[in-house]
Design a protein that fits this description.
With 64 residues, the protein is mainly alpha-helical. It has one domain (12-63). It contains 3 helices and no strands. The chain has helices at 3-7, 14-38, 42-63. Helix 2 (14-38) runs antiparallel to helix 3. The radius of gyration is 15 Å and the shape is elongated. The two termini are 24 Å apart.
């Protein structure tokens, strides 16, 4: 029995967890990028935005 099956109920699949985690991380990075952009730190905001989009895209790719 894996740790995944002990923590989550039977109806939760691995792809559900991948989608939720990557969505949370992706939107977290995009929110941080927005805050940095509004403070005038455009270079740092661009880097965080790229990480956010990459996390969202990777989540979509891994969940299919």
């Amino acid at each position: 029995m894996s740790i995944f099956t002990r923590v989550f109920p039977d109806w939760v699949e691995t792809r559900h967890v991948v989608i939720v985690v990557h969505t949370a991380v992706g939107f977290g990075f995009l929110g941080l990028a927005t805050a940095l952009y509004l403070r005038g730190q455009t270079a740092a905001a661009a880097i965080r935005a790229v990480f956010g989009v990459f996390a969202l895209a990777l989540g979509v790719y891994l969940a299919r």
